[in-house]
Amino acid sequence: MNEPLLSIRSLSKHFGGVAAVDGIDLDVPARETVAIIGPNGAGKTTFYNMVSGRMTPSAGQVLLNGRDITGQPPHRISRLGVSRSFQINNIFTEMTVRENVEVALAAFHHHSRRWFNLASRNRPIQEEAESLLERLSIGELSARRAGVISYGDKRLLEIAVVLATRPKLVLLDEPTAGMTPEETRRVTALVKSLADSGDYTFLITEHDMEVVFSLADRILVMHRGKALVAGTPEEVRRHPEVRKAYLGEDDDDQESLSQEAPQ
Ligand SMILES: Nc1ncnc2c1ncn2[C@@H]1O[C@H](COP(=O)(O)OP(=O)(O)OP(=O)(O)O)[C@@H](O)[C@H]1O
Ligand SMILES: [Mg+2]
């Protein structure tokens, strides 16, 4: 296993009497993809909110490259190389596809909004935007208004915007939610190629088990705020409690599950 880029130590978040996240430990090795799965309300988004600084933990620590970033504000955590996508599209629909990436790049390079009005004619920013769009296979949509492209392409644009901040750790919250099977395959393949490039470390939440098993090097299964099991996809797939509590499988279904999931 590579050195952990992100280390989570006994992380908890309480809302009144509810322990939304309850003593989670997790290492995310550099350049690997870790998936967090679990039923609705398991605490996945709350976990993300604490890693990205949107929520302050009730207890525990978040370490990035061994440095304690617990409770730091989102902009500082983002500067340190942690970037996230949201379940809902987060793009400017009136701008072109390329301008969406240019705005993110201009912000990353500390340019003011006023400067950005000129930046759309700035060659290095344009080229960087184009190259990111190419990498997400939506280069040909560069001049289209972002509001009119397909839902799957919007999610890819959103990932391009996330990558504009040159993150080391990318948090994806249900990257294939609401997609057609074809869009799901396309986005999964792209995330896989980004992961395989070795440029990024991914933490993903995802309800689609086929996506999880094809992307994840390691999986954490959460249930009611706690870690039910953590391990390789194979270990998780075999775990009896996971089958019962999360996958909703009976013992009789073991055969069909192992056939469905890619090896
Ligand atoms: N801001 C909040 N205030 C109070 N309770 C909250 C808050 N955010 C989350 N919760 C509660 O914490 C628990 C975990 O919620 P969370 O949204 O983290 O789950 P999730 O695993 O992301 O679920 P889903 O798969 O539906 O997105 C739930 O019981 C939820 O009601
Ligand atoms: Mg959620």
The average pLDDT value, as a whole number, equals 87
Q: Quick one: how many beta strands?
A: 10
The biggest beta sheet reads: 6 strands, mixed
Name the ligand types: adenosine-5'-triphosphate, magnesium ion
Return the CATH class of the domain at 1-53 and 178-263.
Alpha Beta
Query: Architecture of the domain at 1-53 and 178-263, according to CATH?
Result: 3-Layer(aba) Sandwich
How large is the share of residues in beta strands?
A: 15-25%
CATH topology name of the domain at 1-53 and 178-263, in short, is Rossmann fold
- Strands in their spatial order, largest beta sheet: 6-7-8-3-9-10
Give the low-confidence spans.
Answer: 252-263
Please state the CA-atom Rg, rounded to the nearest Å: 19 Å
Q: What structural class should be given to the helix and strand makeup?
A: alpha/beta
Distance between the termini: 20 Å
Order of helices and strands: EEEHEEHEHHHHEHEHEEHHH
Q: Which descriptor suits the 3D outline?
A: globular
CATH superfamily name of the domain at 1-53 and 178-263?
P-loop containing nucleotide triphosphate hydrolases
Query: How much helicity do the residues have?
Result: 25-40%
SS field, number of helical segments: 11
